[in-house]
Amino acid sequence: MPTTTMTARRLRPLPSLLGLRRTLALTFSALLVAVAASLLSLGTAQPAAALGNGLALTPQMGFNDWNAYGCNVSESLIKSTAQAMHTNGMQAAGYSYVNIDDCWMTHNRDSGGHLVPDPAKFPDGIKGTADYVHSLGLKLGIYEDAGTATCAGYPGSLGHETTDAQSFASWGVDYLKYDNCNNTGAPAQSRYTAMRDALAATGRPILFSLCNWGQENVWTWGAGVGNSWRTTGDITPTYSSMLSIFHSNVGLASYAGPGHWNDPDMLEVGNGSLTATESRSEFSLWAEMAAPLIAGTNIASASADTLSTLTNSRVIAVDQDPLGKQGTMVSSSGGLDVLAKPLAGGDVSVALFNETDSTATITTTAAAIGKTGASTYTLTDLWSGASSTTSGTISASVPAHGTVMYRVAGGTSGGGTSATGELHAVGAAKCLDVPNSTTTAGTQVEIWSCSGGANQTWTHTTSDQLTVYSGSGQMCLDAYDNQTTPGTKVEIWPCNGQTNQQWSLNSNGTITGVQSGLCLDVTGGATADGTLAQLWTCNGGSNQRWTLG
Questions:
Q1: Nearest alpha carbon to residue 198 among 154, 164, 225
Q2: For 18-38, b where at least 16 C-beta lie within 10 A, e where not — what string?
């Protein structure tokens, strides 16, 4: 993917390399290259077409040994974990992959250049382990690295993609997690694409999980390369880590869908300092964001509370919903977050997440989450199973660091649909316009006499973006520099999934920025061609009313 210099104000925060569990495995030069790549990468491309290998049509579910065991992986661990999943309800709940992480091989390839499973750790080899896992009706995953060595210093696959893919296929591997250490500075897309093609050439369906820590704006090209891609650095079993990763991942909904998912890393449910409340929040938020659910705890010894969280069928159904929509942030004020996820059949899942350290009431409405047309709506609490009805208000007292999830039924849902047309400024009787049909990022939009041109044709997407133009030239309506103060200019910018590019079209005719809560406003209430648009405090004026169509 070509790179172009970008002003610093547009850069996303880099993943915390200090927080990576494998930082020591990176050479200093590779670290510098990785940082430089993040700084240069634009994230301007539109979401790529899905990989098309028929896998992960809903987010993958399974187990990975790293979070709980690190390098202490073995055949006996994988077999006992598979057996536990088979009998404790996890397999029945949808968990199907049992994944081996780093440290499974010897430090040298054989004379033919093949990877060698460590005979002390895997006396029956990977194939023998896979055969056992398969006998239980489960699938086996394995780990490798898109560099010269894995993060723990074992042979990497860079330059050996064809040989290694053939080994994986011959062993009966069903899933490849592909890491990013010791990568020589080569562009991630080319390294990951080489393994994609090698896996495809084997003829065996192998789910391809990209693990490049969110670098090089992987969400903009990952869909054509893998079934999922990590959007952040590594998670740790702390509330602060979970919260940081949630914030990094939640704005990327436009890039996810059946067969291609944003991956905010493995679940820490049951690990470290996470409380039961915080573990339920992680599970709730990952499900709301249509994320892979990969358990990373000691499954064989998991507590009843941990298993209860991991196997909650109502929450899993949200994650596995076949519509394949990632939930988006409806509102976020003072650490009180409302997320909504449209579901197949017209229901909407709502997550009320309290980031703060004190119990708080979080409130939204049926209209705000895209529900209309009913005098009452049914709310099902996805953790307790209790049902209630409401005329429109959706509210709960949410404990500190906790999440309440509802499934909202009734009426009609705007979720999963989009609308396209001219965006009419009601007060001026003119249209929102990109001056001179430019595609220059940073151009402030204006009003102009309606012409039906492409520079006046806007689409409100299912991810709440307002896009103009199509194909490679598509741009998003954007609040300048993520600013949230009255007077912030409104411009076009390459779509990047951030909340300053998400807009709510409200029933009163206003258009509000999801990030700021401010109204799209024709400056000064003027009506002349060329009057600029901006964000302003909502005041009910006709210069803040719009119609799309």
A1: 164
A2: ebbbbeebbbeebeebbeebb
* 237 and 122 housed in the same domain: yes
pLDDT tens digit sequence for 362-393: 999 999 998 988 999 999 999 999 999 999 99
H-state helical runs in 251-288: 276-288
pLDDT band at 45 (very low <50, low <70, confident <90, very high): very low
Q: Find the CATH number of the domain harbouring 252.
A: 3.20.20.70
Cα–Cα distance, 55 to 67 (Å, whole number): 25
Q: Is 398:356 a contact under the CB 8 Å cutoff?
A: no
Element of type H or E holding 350: strand 348-354
CA distance linking residue 145 with residue 22, whole number of Å: 12
Q: Which residues contact 408 (CB under 8 A, 6 or more apart)?
A: 347, 348, 349, 350, 366, 369, 371, 377, 378, 379, 394
Which band of pLDDT confidence, cut at 50, 70 and 90, is reported for residue 39? very low
Q: What residue ranges in 171-298 does DSSP mark as E strands?
A: 175-179, 207-210, 228-230, 261-263, 293-295
Q: Quick check: 49 and 223 in contact, CB under 8 A?
A: yes
Mean pLDDT of 274-282: 98
Total structural domains within the chain: 3
Average pLDDT over the chain, rounded to whole? Answer: 89
Domain assignment present for 438: yes
7 Cβ neighbours under 8 A, 6+ residues apart: none
What pLDDT is stored for residue 22 in this prediction?
43
Q: Would you call 446 helix, strand, or coil by DSSP?
A: strand
Counting Cβ atoms within 10 Å, is residue 156 exposed (0-12), middle (13-18) or buried (19+)? buried
Could you identify the residue written with the tokens 């998003």? Answer: 476
Same domain, 394 and 472: no
Backbone angles phi, psi at 495, to 5 degrees: -65, 130
Question: How far from 50 is each of 85, 225, 353, 480, CA to CA, in Å?
Answer: 30, 8, 31, 30
* 38: enclosing H helix or E strand: helix 28-40
425 and 477, same domain (yes or no): yes
Residue spans of beta strands (DSSP E) within 292-335: 293-295, 328-333
Lowest mean pLDDT among 42-46, 207-211, 531-535: 42-46
Q: Can you give the CATH number for the domain in which 532 is found?
A: 2.80.10.50
Q: Which sequence positions are flagged as catalytic?
A: 179, 234
User: Distances from the Cα of 328 to the Cαs of 84, 180, 314, 465, 488, in angstroms?
Assistant: 34, 28, 19, 11, 23
182 alpha carbon, distance to own chain's centre: 25
Mean pLDDT of 492-500: 88
